[in-house]
# Entry
Amino acid sequence: MNTQTFFDRVVEATPGGERLSRCLQCGSCGGSCPSGADMDHTPRGIFALLDGGFEEDVLSSNTPWYCVSCYACTTRCPQQIPITDIMYTLKQMAIHRGHYEHPHAAKFSEPFIGFVEQRGRSFEAGLATRYHLFHRPRDFFQPMQFFKMGMMGANMMRHNRLPLRPKTIRELDELQAILNEAKAIADQEVYA
Amino acid sequence: MTKKTYAYYPGCSLQHGNHAYGVSTEAVARQLDIELVEIDDWNCCGATEYMSINRLPAYALIARNLARAANENGEHDLVVPCSACFLNLHKTDKQMKEFPEWSEKINRSLAAGNLQYEPGTIKVRHWLEAITTDFGSDNLKTRVKRPLYGLKLAPYYGCLVARPDSVFDSTEQPTVMDDMLAALGAEVTTDFSLKTFCCGGHMTQISEETALGMIHQIIHNAVQAGADAIVTLCPMCQLNLDVYQGYANNLFETDYEMPIMFFTQVIGLAMGLSPKELGVGQEFVSMQPAIKKIQDVPPPKPKSERRPKQALPMPVMPE
Ligand code: SF4
Ligand code: SF4
# Structure
């Protein structure tokens, strides 16, 4: 059983994460964040919770999922805290521990990654789900959403932008060997 | 000028949803005597998705491309047109240098595929940087066959070229693309303050309202700045601002029709290439009205705005 605190685990899993202990709670990050208004807690708030050890609150908040990796906070943080990378760590931990409450976001990342792992190629991020939904509409429950997606699909087709199946790279075995090894190392040394 | 050669990482989105960027990139490279040698058997960079699930495989995925580029083409810089791919490749190289313990783990993973990567071997550069810095806007000016007189453009940099490691320009107020567009004869907006605001990235898939809000703000700002088109350097930005523009209009009850052009398409037009050669027509919001605005003679210079005569006098120091 891991005896490290939640804070320490986050620090360890993030390159440069040790700087997190320098947070001034100045709020420059939240003020710079384009989706800050829709987050449960701003990045600053998340770091206060982290400091207090509120693991459940942090990992079940929508904040990491609403982070779009724009790096506005990271460049402006007066303490050089790698905020965007910490958001990635929190997403990874939420998925890893299985108690994330925004399956929507993970559901989107997963088909994208499926393509990457099985083919070595994918689409641009905005198209992967679209493709997925187009080809597996039974996964899709809300009729209104489906209608909208269908409309967009037709438009994409008209503009010659509907994604075809992504190509497969030649040395897929090489890539998969690398990814499997990386996953094994991550399990043993990063999330242990 | 001698032919310049780069290793080239096109990235997935140039093959699919945004081949207009790929086509115009290649057309412009030919015009400028730049040779782009595609990395053999490159793989997806994982966008922002792989990193959200598991960090080490995400790095390894990216590093496989770096290792392959270094093996094949180590003496040349690696040029990347997509901002997200650029960020991933550049950042992985940089972090491997900065964090040897991560570098070691990444290399142990690569070894499973008989690859190795020594951080710093390859210099990763965005395509805009290669054109504006190596080739140079002044040089570009000498190649212009059809100056873009009469066209007012809003240079939109988005996030990942300006941040986090502002490699070749300011993080808050980048200007390289402004200068480049001016060199092509276009008028450049001076008050497009959201030039580095986020387009929303994959947010359309997570919270559509948040995403449409961001998209709408950017387009609204460009409209207010008087732009005929927004110029972008990233396929993800193009997709969001173009494909979702109609949805943003619906939500905010506006009727904006702001074309979103790739900077390579703009350069190509100024070099006299036809819109067709530049993949024009793939966009949702047509570029034709903007292209039609290009005229043969430079527009008259606006009169400089002097203080009107009836304005209050400047305060003077008492004698
Ligand atoms: S900007 Fe940096 S120092 Fe300020 S609250 Fe955010 S993380 Fe802390
Ligand atoms: S990187 Fe994420 S947390 Fe930081 S400002 Fe951008 S969206 Fe907000």
Remarks:
- Residues 130-144 of chain A have pLDDT under 50 and may be disordered.
